[in-house]
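Entry 12.
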Amino acid sequence: MPAYQRVLLKLSGEALMGDDSYGINPTTIDAMVKDIADVVASGIQLAIVIGGGNIFRGVAGGAAGMDRATADYMGMLATMMNALALQDALRQKGVEARVQSALRMDQVVEPYIRPKAIRHMEEGKVVIFAAGTGNPFFTTDTAAALRGAEMGVEIVLKATKVDGIYTSDPKKDASATRYDTISFDEAIIKNLQVMDATAFALCRDRKLPIKVFSILKPGALKRVVMGEIEGTLVHV
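Predicted 3D structure (tokens):
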């Protein structure tokens, strides 16, 4: 029996790269889609916010001298490419998906319309939100928190390359240990950088829990939505 009825999955663009240095790794996205299909088959309503870091990093572009707002808009277009790739991969697995974009691109995807997105989810379709919030200076983490609140999800699932939140960087500190659960306040005090500050504050204010887990572990997504011990739960 699923632990949740409606969830939002935040996928980073970097997670789509697999072991590649750029772009979308076919083996990686295929494995992700299989896990997503399993979750949808169990009757869970699923929305996805996807990043664009595998194609373009807005912050890096700004640091190199590009106007930050322009760089961020380019990053939003990168999320559109990822969203279309994910939609296609899902459809090939028999999962109906709809892309809704915060930036208008009507010939390609639907504009973001909240009631329509909710209806899609109620009909069993996966809704993929592209172009972040549609505004520069806001990350796709913030878009995930915002869309999660708007969709009335029960939890935000932050899929990363790491299997949870650790006391310190496990790649640098062999003694680092993983938290099973941690409160929002404790994560702030310990400066654990779960999400960017805007996204984190929105989730805390809305009492919207966050689960951080590794999307690269086979079956991890299914275990999370079934309420099994996997990753780290951030709660009020």
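Annotation: The chain has one domain: 6-235. The domain at 6-235 is CATH 3.40.1160.10 (Carbamate kinase).
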